[in-house]
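Open question from group meeting: does this chain pack into something compact, or does most of it stay loose? Before anyone orders reagents, we agreed to write out a predicted structure and look at it together. Recording both the input and the output here so the notebook holds the full record.
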Amino acid sequence: AFLIGCSAFCQIMRTIKEELMWLRERSSPHEVATAISGWIERYNNSYLHSTLKSTTPNQADLKSVSLPWF
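Structure tokens returned:
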């Protein structure tokens, strides 16, 4: 499980670098943090994943949540 987690982390970091950091130079740590935060928001709410049956990460997460207290 650790290797899978590490692989996924490395892939998401590469994606962030390719889609966000390499496209424009940032002038401050605050600007970097703001850009990454916005990217994560768009990624989780808009990016359709083939491995998640063409849903966004947030949609897939909502589908996987069970409510045992009901």
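Observations to bring back to the group:
The chain has a mean pLDDT of 82.
Residues 2-21 form the longest helix (20 residues).
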